[in-house]
Amino acid sequence: MKRPRRNHSAPNMICYVCKHPDFRVRKGAVRDNPALQILEGANCGLVPLSSLDHIQAGHYENSGMHRDDWPSIETWLRETEQDDQRRFDMLKTALVNRKVLDFGCGAAGFVRKAESLAAEVAGVEPERRVREHWGDAIALYGSLEDAGGGDDLITAFHVIEHLPDPGAMLKKLAALLKDRGRLVIEVPSSDDVLLTLYDSDAFQRFTYWSQHLFLFNAETLRRLAVQAGLRVVSIQQFQRYPLSNHLHWLSRQQPGGHQHWSFLDSPALIEAYAASLAAVGKGDTLIAHLERDQALIKPVFFQRQRQLVTNRRSKPK
Ligand SMILES: [Zn+2]
Predict the structure, then answer these.
(1) How far is ligand 1, taken at its centre, from the CA of residue 60, in Å?
(2) In contact, 157 and 87? CB cutoff 8 Å
(3) How far, in Å, is the centroid of ligand 1 from the Cα of 80?
(4) What distance in angstroms lies between residue 40's CA and the mean position of ligand 1's atoms?
(5) Which residues surround ligand 1, an ion (CB under 5 A)?
(6) Tens digit of pLDDT for each residue in 229-249?
(7) How far is the CA of 262 from the centre of ligand 1 (A)?
(8) pTM of the model
(9) How many whole angstroms from 205 Cα to the centroid of ligand 1?
């Protein structure tokens, strides 16, 4: 791999995690905003975009994440079904009879599943369409302040990489946890093997997105959590995409290999490949289990607001 170029485009920028001023420019392009550069902190390895100016207040409330390509809620649910089920299976025992909050719940597929085991489940999703879709069928809130506190478990799946101030949000989430409550964070990994070992040019022009403001690896995620006053229980490597997907990137320079070449993916191969990538820290996903450190973060408790009940009673879909 060629030595990454030194960044001169953001001279006053310091690293969000370690405050160091030096960055390298990563290979690749932001697929929906070529003016942005992908940086990598020379000290800690955090991967920020070169600017966050394209994220304005109200962005997520107005479906800004999807821009002109808005999936219907039904399509969105179908797309997330596999991940929703995997997360539900992973957290089953932690859900039973607990008070649960899914922060940035998207189409609310995980919230729907969690309802079958938890004592109480709420979701927070700024995107208005989702709340309009479900109406009062499930407890959905537009902001964290409305969603209460005293939770046993808070989940945030592929959320904090979208936030301009992820550390502040971790602190807020931690303050909503009960004593010994658990915060489970899932993020894409900046050490994905397609980026850091296979060095796929096509993937590096495809994967970076203007909505992913920061990409973390296990170390930068750990530092972020500790700085937010959380105790790190574990940070696990996980692989969402199987070998067929990676072979397809390397052979055809295109996504979709896990669909086109799914015949390659026996359960044994999926498991063995994921374990091999985890062993070298190059999975595509990180899952962090964090706990509130009582000494550092005082709990807060908001009364959960009554759901806004509209006349247009939307049926569960
Ligand atoms: Zn840094």
Answers:
(1) 27
(2) yes
(3) 32
(4) 8
(5) 15, 17-18, 20, 41, 43-44, 46
(6) 999 999 999 999 999 999 999
(7) 38
(8) 0.88
(9) 23
Structure tokens at 196: 């850091």
Q: In angstroms, what CA-CA distances link 188 with 34, 47, 105, 162, 191?
A: 21, 11, 16, 11, 9
Residue pLDDT, tens place only, 284-309: 999 999 998 776 666 666 555 544 43
